[in-house]
Specification:
about 475 residues; mainly alpha; 20 helices; about 0% strand; globular
Length: about 475
């Protein structure tokens, strides 16, 4: 009964609201900004190599560091298990719609991350910002930002963590025959040590190992593509035929392809969801648009590169996607076919590091938003216990219900953020025009809040002398 209700609500939100919003707002942003995510690719790549302006006594990161950190946090369950699920449910055509959603999503990612930079605040821990800030500051309303904060807690802190554990247990059951209960208990205890015991070394270890595992996975995928290059045109043809073919149109397959391509793409690259802006706000740059470019490129890298790697690993194998295997098991089977059993074992450990680092990151996303809503020791304690319960639930639940719950919570979170950025997008457009105007006359763009009429609640960019100081410090370090 519960699963039926959740499926009905989820189908309604995705079929009639979210897919239309994601594609519609993505098209609106793309047209209003004159296809900037394609036309300005050279400028976007150039911005990554700029050194970040420095603030004395702070630990700031460069645009390139921000890009790699973002890439490391994105690569994981969505890229490997999510792509396999998309192909299983929506057919190969889902990959095309994942690409399509990523191109449009790049514009949305640019807008939300630029807004996060514009409305960011400076605290003793560094810069903070995101949807909760730009919603509350510009509209002067607390309840929309509280709804978004609650949706972050629900999505990242609770349900997404169940997805991560579910993927870990399936991967280790496939490779080693370890029971879901045993693996679930292990992950739950490990998480408890971090959130209750303050054992940060485990979290730091995952931050180091994730980029290494990610790089190795991409190298393996590129090897598969190069060594099977003769079969790549047929795989591409299958994707396009499934995305637009008459057979799929008559059977309703196009709808399934679009739905699953957009869903799994959003889970992987987070464009428009409102989560990436929290990280984007933390960077120190001379102009908000620079960080918008970084996040846009992160979406492209995640979906057009990494998700495509997984898609070709699966499609260039003979693994049956409609068989008994599901999710990460399909990717593992395809890897084993290409490289031998060791590759499946490698992927199990890679998924563990990716998923566990996401569990830790998701927990802290939720904890930060607990504080945004209400500072309470008891509320934090209840949240921590609930996180551990959801981790264990994810280990024992079936794949379908876990991903359905993830889609539902993701929909709520994305709808709130998409409405906000659709209204506030004009400020990101103005910031882009300001940036390009300065770039055309040979300047290193500097942002002043006073150049855009109508901005409210701006703190960091409010004083021109502050912006000048930041820029001068940046020039000295370039």
């Amino acid at each position: 009964m519960f699963e039926t209700i959740v499926n009905s609500i989820n189908d309604f939100l995705w079929t009639y609201i979210l897919v239309v919003m994601l594609i519609g707002i993505g098209i609106y942003f793309t047209v209003r900004m004159k296809f900037m995510q394609i036309v300005l690719l050279k400028e976007i790549f150039r911005s990554i190599f700029e050194k970040a302006p420095k603030i004395k006594g702070s630990q700031d990161i460069s645009s390139m560091q921000a890009f790699f950190i973002g890439a490391a946090t994105r690569i994981g369950t969505g890229n490997m298990a999510g792509v396999a699920i998309a192909i299983t449910v929506g057919g190969p055509g889902a990959i095309f719609w994942m690409w399509f959603a990523a191109v449009l999503g790049g514009a949305s990612a640019f807008v939300e991350s630029t807004l996060a930079q514009i409305y960011k605040v400076r605290t003793s821990d560094g810069f903070k910002g995101g949807p909760g800030y730009y919603i509350q500051k510009q509209f002067g309303l607390k309840w929309p930002s509280r709804i978004f904060a609650f949706s972050v807690i629900l999505s990242f802190g609770l349900i997404f963590n169940a997805v991560q554990t579910n993927t870990i247990t399936n991967a280790f059951r496939y490779s080693f025959g370890i029971s879901p209960i045993g693996m679930g208990v292990f992950v739950t205890i490990l998480t408890a040590l971090i959130i209750f015991g303050g054992v940060k070394r485990i979290a730091r270890f995952t931050q180091i190992i994730v980029p290494i595992m990610s790089s190795f996975y991409i190298i393996l995928a590129l090897y598969v593509i190069v060594t099977n290059i003769a079969d790549v045109p047929a795989a591409l043809a299958s994707i396009m035929k499934s995305a637009f073919g008459l057979e799929q149109m008559v059977g309703g397959g196009i709808g399934a392809a679009i739905m699953n391509g957009v869903k799994r793409g959003l889970f992987s690259n987070e464009a428009g969801m409102g989560s990436a802006p929290n990280a984007a706000a933390a960077a120190h740059v001379s102009h908000p648009v620079k960080q918008g470019f970084v996040q846009l490129l992160g979406v492209f890298f995640d979906t057009l590169v990494v998700c495509s790697c997984t898609a070709f690993i699966i499609m260039l194998s003979t693994v049956e996607t409609a068989g008994d295997l599901s999710g990460i098991e399909i990717t593992q089977a395809a890897m084993a076919q290409h490289f031998g059993s060791w590759a499946s074992i490698f992927l199990a450990f890679a998924i563990f590091t990716f998923a566990f680092s996401s569990i830790v990151g998701g927990y802290y996303y939720g904890e930060a938003n607990i504080g945004f809503i209400h500072h309470s020791v008891s509320a934090l304690f209840v949240y921590r216990i609930t996180v551990l319960m959801m981790i264990m639930f994810g280990a024992l639940a079936n794949l379908q219900i876990v991903w359905t719950l993830a889609d539902l919570s993701m929909a709520i979170m994305a709808i709130v953020n998409l409405v906000a950025i659709a209204i506030l997008g004009k400020f990101a457009f103005a910031a882009l025009n300001d940036y390009m105007g300065q770039r055309k006359v040979g300047k290193n763009p500097v942002f002043y809040a006073s150049t855009i009429p109508g901005l409210k609640g701006i703190e960091w960019w409010g004083a021109e002398k502050q912006a000048i100081k930041s820029t001068n410090e940046g020039v000295e370090n370039q």
